[in-house]
């Protein structure tokens, strides 16, 4: 099939590359000429493991291409996916749909044949209805089918998630939309990936409900971790104990400094705005958003407390800045609030991240970026693990501590056992465990 993908951000680029790897003919379109130039030169605008080689292989095979010109990209297309950004609108938290609606308007003026238009972007319930109206008004007489096909990709594992999905959700209002999307995903038939076909508004809601539930699960275990610290219990054992119940499951029960990234923060806010507009309170989601926001700065205060309650004039080395490993995404990362809390307390902050420093540097102008974990720790009074990169799981603790001013190890991801850290002379502070 011929597919056009509008948008070469995280969702559009990964989806386009994977569709082409299935054997489809895919053209990715973006208005950003510098991004398209970079992609045509083999340079990825994001860090995602395996993406560069996947793109290169399919470009070489002639199945994947990139352009800024919409008309030839959509000419003869069986399906056009809209995969543009829907960031939180400044001031009210609503999803900014201007890019989605702008793409629909351009498609109405450009498409010269009946086609299936698919919203891949995360959009509030009812967005597909407006896209359909724009297409109908802008191209009278055309029988475009508008469908919803939300993505469920984890940054850092997106290619595997796309090719081995838990489910494929298709929101369609007619047989044409369903049939075309089933054919698009037919290569996954051998993987027995379940396909759930719903009405369009239901598909749009599934995406938001899934992200809100996962965000709530993260926030729940973080609050349980705080209680564990207070009563002398071990949160990792608690998480294992409840996660073995298959009604609950073990995923997203890892206590830490709070969630961030491109999805959970903006999607929970957008869901709350939809609920408020319809006068339906979502008190659990409201509490989740509030608790997560408060937790990030609380983790900065936890580091300060471990330093005796006074960080002024002291150096704190942060290991990891991105909101999770295997990505360079800094959006709503807990590190942003933690850094600000430390700086407000008068600390000097150094940091190292394997992939995120180029993006993080302008967001944290007062943080000294270093080229390794060991360089960041030189002269530090505390080292804190913020992101659980694999590179931090087997640190040479003797080397790390040898140049530090004080051996304080704050593990906000619980990737080290206290005894192994203590053997090297460190004081160890973790999440959801008894104090020393």
Detailed description of the structure:
The chain is an alpha/beta fold and 436 residues long. The chain has two domains: 2-198, Rossmann fold, CATH 3.40.50.720; 199-436, Rossmann fold (3-Layer(aba) Sandwich), CATH 3.40.50. It is 43% helix and 13% strand. The protein has 17 helices and 14 strands. The chain has helices at 10-21, 33-40, 51-60, 70-74, 98-110, 127-138, 158-163, 175-184, 200-231, 235-243, 264-277, 283-306, 334-344, 357-360, 373-377, 397-402, 418-422; strands spanning 2-6, 25-29, 64-67, 79-82, 116-119, 145-148, 168-171, 195-198, 315-319, 348-352, 368-369, 382-385, 408-411, 427-430. The strands form three sheets. The chain has a six-stranded parallel β-sheet with strand order 3-2-1-4-5-6, sandwiched between helices. A six-stranded parallel β-sheet has the order 11-10-9-12-13-14. Helix 12 crosses helix 13 (334-344). The termini are far apart. The relative contact order is 0.09.
In short, what is this structure?
By secondary structure, the protein is of the alpha/beta class. The chain has 17 helices and 14 strands. The strands form three sheets. Strands 3-2-1-4-5-6 form a six-stranded parallel β-sheet, with helices on both faces. Strands 11-10-9-12-13-14 form a six-stranded parallel β-sheet. A two-stranded parallel sheet has the order 7-8.
Separation, N- and C-terminal Cα atoms: 61 Å
Overall structural domain count: 2
Question: How would a crystallographer describe the biggest sheet?
Answer: 6 strands, parallel
Give the radius of gyration. Answer: 23 Å
Q: How many strand segments?
A: 14
CATH superfamily of the largest domain: NAD(P)-binding Rossmann-like Domain
Can you count the helices? 17
Strand order of the largest sheet: 3-2-1-4-5-6
Low-confidence stretches: none
Could you please say which CATH topology of the largest domain applies here?
Answer: Rossmann fold
Q: Could you estimate the helical fraction of the residues in percent?
A: 40-55%
CATH architecture of the largest domain: 3-Layer(aba) Sandwich
CATH class of the largest domain: Alpha Beta
State mean pLDDT (0 to 100 scale). 96
């Amino acid at each position: 099939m011929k597919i056009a993908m509008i948008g070469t951000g995280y969702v559009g680029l990964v989806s386009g590359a994977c569709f082409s790897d299935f054997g489809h003919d895919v053209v990715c379109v973006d208005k950003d000429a510098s991004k398209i130039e970079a992609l045509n030169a083999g340079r990825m605008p994001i860090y995602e493991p395996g993406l560069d080689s996947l793109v290169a292989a399919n470009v070489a095979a002639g199945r994947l291409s990139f352009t800024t010109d919409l008309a030839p990209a959509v000419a003869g297309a069986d399906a056009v996916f809209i995969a543009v950004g829907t960031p939180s609108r400044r001031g009210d938290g609503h999803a900014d749909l201007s890019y989605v609606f702008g793409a629909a308007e351009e498609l109405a003026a450009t498409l010269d044949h009946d086609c299936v238009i698919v919203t891949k972007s995360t959009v509030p319930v009812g967005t597909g209805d407006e896209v359909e109206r724009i297409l109908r008004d802008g191209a009278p007489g055309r029988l475009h089918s508008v469908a919803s096909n939300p993505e469920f990709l984890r940054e850092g594992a997106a290619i595997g998630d796309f090719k081995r999905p838990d489910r494929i959700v298709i929101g369609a209002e007619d047989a044409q939309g369903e049939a075309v999307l089933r054919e698009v995903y037919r290569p996954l038939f051998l993987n027995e990936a379940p396909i759930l076909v719903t009405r369009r508004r239901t598909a749009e809601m599934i995406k938001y409900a899934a992200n809100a539930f996962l965000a709530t699960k993260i926030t729940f275990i973080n609050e349980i971790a705080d209680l564990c610290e207070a009563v002398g219990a071990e949160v990792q054992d608690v998480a294992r104990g409840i996660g073995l119940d298959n009604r609950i499951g073990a995923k997203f029960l890892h206590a830490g400094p709070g969630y961030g990234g491109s999805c959970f923060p903006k999607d929970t806010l957008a869901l709350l705005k939809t609920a408020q507009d319809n006068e339906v309170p979502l008190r659990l989601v409201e509490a989740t958003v509030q608790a997560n926001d408060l937790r990030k700065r609380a983790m900065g205060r936890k580091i300060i407390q471990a330093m005796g309650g006074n960080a002024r004039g002291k150096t704190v080395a942060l290991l990891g800045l991105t909101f999770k490993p295997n990505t360079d995404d800094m959006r709503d990362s807990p590190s942003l609030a933690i850094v600000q809390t430390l700086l407000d307390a008068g600390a000097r902050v150094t940091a190292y991240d394997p992939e995120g420093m180029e993006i993080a540097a302008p967001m944290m102008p007062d943080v000294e970026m270093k080229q390794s974990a060991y360089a960041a720790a030189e002269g530090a009074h505390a080292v804190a693990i913020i992101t659980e990169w694999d590179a931090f799981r087997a640190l040479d603790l003797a080397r790390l501590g040898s140049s530090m001013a004080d051996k304080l190890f704050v593990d906000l991801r619980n990737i080290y056992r206290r005894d192994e850290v203590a053997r090297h002379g460190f004081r160890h502070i973790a999440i959801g465990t008894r104090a020393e």
